[in-house]
Amino acid sequence: MKRKRFSEDQIVRILQEAERCGSTVSELCKRHGVSEQSFYRWKKQYGGLDVADVRRLRELEKENAQLKRLLAERCLEVDALREVLKKKD
């Protein structure tokens, strides 16, 4: 089965359509070629957000990952310096 990749904008629009439209989730999923499991996972992650909020969320996640990498590097440097100081004593 072909795997489709939806952008965050498309996901938000599908979720908004589900809120506006009176059709069932299964009908909506069939129309867009999405499994119900994916729909509910998207709803859990992106529910109640609009397109601008999703873009901001993506930027924050990217920034958070960068900060985590910097912290990990700093911790490694501190550990290395402690090892050097222990050897000098």
Salient structural properties:
89 residues; mainly alpha; 4 helices; single chain; rod-shaped
Give a structural overview.
The protein is mainly α. The protein has one domain. Helix content is 79%, strand content 0%. The protein has helices at 8-20, 25-32, 36-46, 51-88. The N and C termini lie far apart (64 Å). The model has no long low-confidence stretch (mean pLDDT 90).
TL;DR?
This protein is an all-alpha fold. 79% of the residues lie in helices and 0% in strands. It has one domain (8-88).
Helix and strand layout, with pairings?
Elements: H1 8-20, H2 25-32, H3 36-46, H4 51-88
Q: First CA to last CA: what distance?
A: 64 Å
Number of domains: 1
User: What gross morphology would you assign?
Assistant: rod-shaped
Helical proportion? over 70%
Largest sheet: none
